[in-house]
Amino acid sequence: MSFTLAIVGRPNVGKSTLFNRLVGKRLALVDDQPGVTRDLREGAARLADLRFTVIDTAGLEEVTDDSLQGRMRRLTERAVDMADICLFMVDARVGITPSDLVFADILRKRSAHVILAANKAEGKAADAGVIEAYSLGLGEPIRLSAEHGEGLNDLYTHLMPLADAYAEKARDDAPEVDVDVGEEDDDEVRVPTRSRPLQVAVVGRPNAGKSTLINQILKEDRLLTGPEAGITRDAISLTTEWAADFDSEPVPMRIFDTAGMRKKAKVQEKLEKLSVSDGLRAVKFAEVVVVLLDAEIPFEQQDLRIADLAEREGRAVVVAVNKWDIEEDRQAKLKELKESFERLLPQLRGAPLITVSAKTGRGLDRLHQAIMRAYEMWNRRVSTAQLNRWLSGMLEAHPPPAPQGKRIKLRYMTQAKTRPPGFVVMCSHPDKVPDSYSRYLVNGLRIDFDMPGTPIRLWMRGQSDANPYKGRKKAAPSKLRKHIGSNRNDGSR
Fold first, then answer.
1. Which helix (H) or strand (E) holds 51?
2. pLDDT value at position 413?
3. pLDDT tens digits for 281-299?
4. Residue pLDDT, tens place only, 438-486
5. Sheet arrangement for strand 288-294
6. Is 411 helix (H, G, I), strand (E, B) or coil?
7. What are phi and psi for residue 453, nearest 5 degrees?
8. 3-state SS class at 423
């Protein structure tokens, strides 16, 4: 990526619509309701031959206090400081408002490169607003329609000369890309790199402290936080290098902050439905999922559903209990948490349970170690020889049942995949193997091959017990006698 472009402007001028068009995906939520975007969202943008990073921001409002709108404005101003170029969007149909004049003055002072765009400029109704945009003193406005993709050629013309200035710097900072991996390396543990960081999603109910935890990991206030539940709406991804302590090597990670997930019956607003589906998509893109619980009300029904979703998607799971700093009787609480975990989430038996304080940062080193350990187990590879020796011992200790008098024979076993580990058992009558016996094998794999809490997939495949010569056509007796007679005529006995 050669440069960073921040899209800024008042609420509901079309910033997220343009962001989605530039990245080529519906990453940012879009709705007619103003103020949908609250956090900063980054994406890899493409415009003709230009490749750059685009930042979608919250709508600028004339608020400077500690309210939600005030914090959103400070976050947007931070994006302006971070970005190389600012694209200031106004609504051509509404015209220039007093707020636009205030924000134009702020941008002139804070950003070296400001491009003015009059959005919603399709049709004659927008002509007056486009002409009025000259009064902002930011040069000639680009006539845009983010909804219909009009005016992108003019945007390219403005960005092209600025892109050249950042190209050389980008080449120095670019991570290694296009690394070829042969088929023989598919089962090796992938070491996270700057170009392919470890993907971690932080999920949980509203107000569990997900954004605060990620800010603590990043050591900066990148995400909007506060006492209000449901502040985060988009699934925001942020790239960082996180080390467990000063002596350890930092690990490149892409961390997804997701919207709080409530019970389906309580999700009524269209906007919240979009937010939850965005969070579910983040789980599917992640490699490790951190399920964040509130120490005051852990293992609510929705927490269990979220953890089960991560397991069903086959992701490595770490359970973290937040707000541990305000807990008084910690020993008794920890014992209670472990008992509840074993009872309520048997499918994740052995997964790490970590106590943290997102507010103070205590326990983050243990969380880092748990994430890396879960990732390592998620990539675990066991040789076929080891598996078959293990299978013999398991069969000897507990032979499979004989439904309807038919003995099930488990012949051999191999690992078919990793991430998560998946195993295939060749057997007779695979459809008659009870679920209880499959669970017996899966639990044995967890214990004996050190894969606690990792989602494990086990498939039974059929292998015929029949005689391989059955059904073959026999030679006719007359032909057989003739063949024997011909051998005797050559003088042999």
1. strand 50-56
2. 92
3. 677 778 899 999 988 888 8
4. 999 999 999 999 998 889 999 999 865 555 455 555 555 555 455 545 5
5. 236-242, 251-257, 198-204, 288-294, 316-322, 353-355
6. strand
7. 80, -10
8. strand
Q: Which two tokens mark 484?
A: 């024997």
Low-confidence ranges of the chain (pLDDT < 50): 1, 30-31, 33-36, 38, 170, 172-187, 224-234, 262-278, 468, 480, 484, 490-493
Two structure tokens written together for 51 = 């490749």
Question: Residue 400 CB: number of other CB atoms within 10 A?
Answer: 20
CA 311 to chain centre: 14
Question: Which phi and psi angles does 89 have, rounded to 5°?
Answer: -105, 135
Reduced to 3 states, what is the DSSP secondary structure of residue 387?
helix
Q: Which of 353, 216, 234, 361 is nearest to 293 (CA)?
A: 353
CA angle 58, 62, 67 (to 5 degrees): 70
- pLDDT tens figures, 111-129: 878 999 999 998 888 889 8
Strands (E) located in 442-493 = 457-462
61 DSSP 8-state letter: -
Amino acid at position 415, single letter? Q
Nearest of 422, 451, 423, 418 to residue 189 by alpha carbon: 418
Number of residues that make up the chain: 493
Token pair of 214, please?
A: 């990620």
pLDDT at 372: 94
Question: Residue 171 burial by CB count (10 A; 0-12/13-18/19+): exposed, middle or buried?
Answer: exposed
Residue 203 CA to its chain's centroid (Å): 10
* Residue 336 Ramachandran class (φ > 0 left, ψ -120 to 50 alpha, else beta): alpha
The CA-based angle 197-16-55, given to 5 degrees, is 40
Enter the tokens of residue 76. Answer: 């947007």
Tokens of 206: 């509203």
What letter does residue 39 receive in the DSSP assignment? Answer: S
